[in-house]
Amino acid sequence: MSDLDDLRGMLRGRVLVAGEEGFDGASRAWNLAVDQPVAAVVEAADADDVSALVRHARRSGLTVAVQPTGHGASGAVEGVVLLRTGALDGVEVDPVRRIARVGAGVSWGRVQEAAAAHGLTGLPGSSPVVGVTGYTLGGGLSWFGRRHGWAADSVRAFEVVDAEGERARVDAVSDPDLFWALRGGGGDFAVVTAMEFDLYPAPELYGGAGGVGRLGGVAGAGGVFRGHGRGPGGVDGVGEPAHPGAGADGVGGRHVPGW
Ligand SMILES: Cc1cc2nc3c(=O)[nH]c(=O)nc-3n(C[C@H](O)[C@H](O)[C@H](O)COP(=O)(O)OP(=O)(O)OC[C@H]3O[C@@H](n4cnc5c(N)ncnc54)[C@H](O)[C@@H]3O)c2cc1C
């Protein structure tokens, strides 16, 4: 029995080894042009699975790469065990403390839906399908960035599995160095299983795209974005205060949950 086969008895989640049915789909990146010649895919069921995987990888000399969505896939994963975090999908919003706790498999769209129900927003980027954790570990440049800074700077705490396979809660007091490194340094310092971060008031946002061609291409684009750019309490990087419904093609003034 191989080291990879051994894993099956240690985890609650699925282990798919190259050549097995379902492996091709499970190992595919979001960008289909990127080939991912990984040795196996592990779909962790929970944080304990992540811990067991890391411990086993240490003992067996395996390399683990975390990839919730594959938005940042480069293809440099030959022979590694690809860790999927999709089942770590919890989203909790505390509207009083204005804090969200999300699992490492959650994408921004779900956070924004949960936060918008309370007139709050996280600091997402341009796409609802980008993973919250991967985005934030890389810094996270949001449409709200001018007002609230990098998404990484709004993190209160990370729940991680370290290189020994130990679980820990990391914040500015418990481990300042690791907390600093995780906020912008990428995913090489620990496997994150969940994060807590600040939410911000955002009672409404008018946004949209379209009409650029109708207004004369790039030259007209500034006018379109100014026309659509009203953020909470003023403007957050998208132009001047606008009048709702001002956009071309009937898309201006439509309420959207957070972007
Ligand atoms: C359509 C689109 C729009 C985007 N818009 C923006 C934007 O507006 N602003 C912006 O700042 N960025 C933006 N990005 C870039 C995006 O933030 C990065 O590609 C980010 O790395 C994607 O994270 P992911 O988890 O979805 O991708 P993945 O490729 O699955 O993961 C990326 C990397 O994050 C790390 N990682 C992920 N999860 C964990 C974990 N649990 N533990 C440890 N490491 C982990 C790993 O190193 C992994 O290689 C955009 C990307 C796309 C595809």
UniProtKB/TrEMBL annotation:
Required co-factors: FAD
Bias-annotated ranges (Gly residues): 247-259
SUPFAM superfamilies assigned to the protein according to its UniProt record, in alphabetical order: FAD-binding/transporter-associated domain-like (SSF56176)
Keywords: FAD, Flavoprotein, Oxidoreductase
Region annotation (Disordered) ranges: 230-259
Domain FAD-binding PCMH-type: 34-202
UniProt xrefs under PROSITE patterns: FAD_PCMH (PS51387)
Superkingdom of the organism of origin: Bacteria
A Pfam family hit: FAD_binding_4
Gene3D superfamilies tied to this protein: 3.30.465.10
UniProt-listed InterPro entries: FAD-bd_PCMH (IPR016166), FAD-bd_PCMH-like_sf (IPR036318), FAD-bd_PCMH_sub2 (IPR016169), FAD-linked_Oxidoreductase (IPR050416), Oxid_FAD_bind_N (IPR006094)
Protein family according to the UniProt entry: Belongs to the oxygen-dependent FAD-linked oxidoreductase family.
Protein name in UniProt: FAD-binding oxidoreductase
